[in-house]
Write a structure and sequence with these properties.
Elements lengths: L2 E5 L4 H12 L7 E4 L3 H9 L10 E4 L2 E4 H9 L17 H19 L19
Parallel strand pairs: 1-2
Antiparallel strand pairs: 1-3, 3-4
């Protein structure tokens, strides 16, 4: 089963989220690619998404999940109590996504931005597709 997370590689919040996921994914369920990288851009094109996308994208078995649905579907596969957040999927996306949108819109202002994408720790390097 293929599970790929596309994330904003220059966003501090997004990079912290990737590290959070890596620490709670002992079975190496997820692979990662930055939205800005070649692999991320190719995947966006493959699935008909805007290459300027700044949304969290989760690809699971050739199916695309965006925004809050993507984040909650990832939570479902994490260790610990984090998987309980997936219960929020019962709330329709049109209700959840505005909250996601507020965070996404303000993420650089609230959490900062890097000049370049993060470099993964050596033990995580094989999990990154770029």
């Amino acid at each position: 089963m293929e599970r790929i997370i596309l994330f904003d590689g220059v966003c501090n919040l997004c990079n912290s989220s990737v590290q959070f996921i890596l620490k709670r994914d002992p079975n190496s369920t997820f692979k990662f690619a930055s939205l800005q990288g070649e692999t991320g851009q190719a995947l966006l094109k493959k699935y008909g998404l805007n290459t300027d996308s700044n949304s969290f994208v989760f690809i699971e078995n050739e199916k695309i999940h965006l925004k809050s649905t993507a984040a909650l579907r990832v939570c479902r596969k994490l260790t610990g109590a984090w998987r309980l957040l997936a219960a929020l999927l019962i709330i329709p996306g049109f209700i959840r996504d505005p909250f996601y949108g507020i965070i996404a819109k303000n993420r650089y202002r609230w959490f900062g931005k890097k000049d370049s994408c993060m470099l993964p720790k050596p033990e995580w390097k094989n999990r990154f597709l770029d």
